[in-house]
User: What shape does this take?
Amino acid sequence: MALFSVLSILLFACLEQSATGAPAATDPTLNTGANITYPLPTQLIYQFPNGTWIENLAIRPNGHILATEDTKPRLYELDPFSKHPANIVAELNDTASVLGIAEGAPDIFYICTGNYSSKLLQGYGEAFVYQVDMTQYSPHIANSARISKIAMFSTAGALNGLAYLPASKSLLISDFLVGVIWRVDVASGDIDVAINNTYTHSSGFAVNGLRLHNSDLYFTNSGQGTLVRVPINARGDPVGDFKVLAQGGFTPDDMAVDARGDAYVVSFTVGKNGLVFVPREGGNGTYIAGMAGPTAAAFGKTERDRDVLYVTTSGGDYSYLAGEGDTVAGQILAVKVGRKGY
Assistant: This one.
């Protein structure tokens, strides 16, 4: 079954390659693996200025992309079907970075911000969670996105992955330096720990990306090189066994999950950056697309792009993250996978 899933994606790619676009341009000075040939081509949607690290993204109901920036505390919005530049929705200057993002209700999003050093593997200062109401947003009207602070962390390491639980109106938030999954009540701002065990821990980068599929929580652990799935209740507490779907061969960051429950994990393994397919039943991950410094992925929401994965990038691999590599441009790329998202 796993082999059939991968082959079906690759066959679709071969049939659709002419419509998808050429592979993204690569810089031969970057040892990122972006110039390795993989089956699925990538299409450049938008390129930010050099030195811009784009960390995560979410898709609005109208198909526009919201993207967070690590290098500056900014949230952007752009239309993937137009040539217009990205708009700055907000700049949250109480912290250094904007990291995770997730949609709660239609056009109501949550983002987390923070201060941390990836090189020193430590957080400093406070971290915050905000609600971003885009229902009245217009790129032509300043401050038209309504932004409110809903929670403050004084002991967080680095907040990153976000998942919204509608039944309990709460958020699950990964902390890749502390190695736990926090829970935040969006009404009260109360914070507690939802998951804290060997699957979330690591001596380096720990639990990272989070995604929901029905009542299952998928999460990655970058340091352990794992993709894990666990059934949870409405509050985010585990109610079944943790299953390691894939381990080794990649350095997983964030991911997207399709309607079937198969995962598309972005990996920043030095020299082999790319998008990795992991079947829902588990097994070895398969690289299906290459790009420089992928950080997150999300499926499109319109009839034109429901089978397209949008991928954000830092522009480089871990050497860039550590300040040792070339300074290049973060991007948003499109990869047509022929599957609809969840």
Remarks:
- The mean pLDDT is 87.
- DSSP finds two helices and 26 strands in the chain.
- The two ends are 20 Å apart (CA to CA).
- Residues 211 and 218 are 5 Å apart (CA to CA).
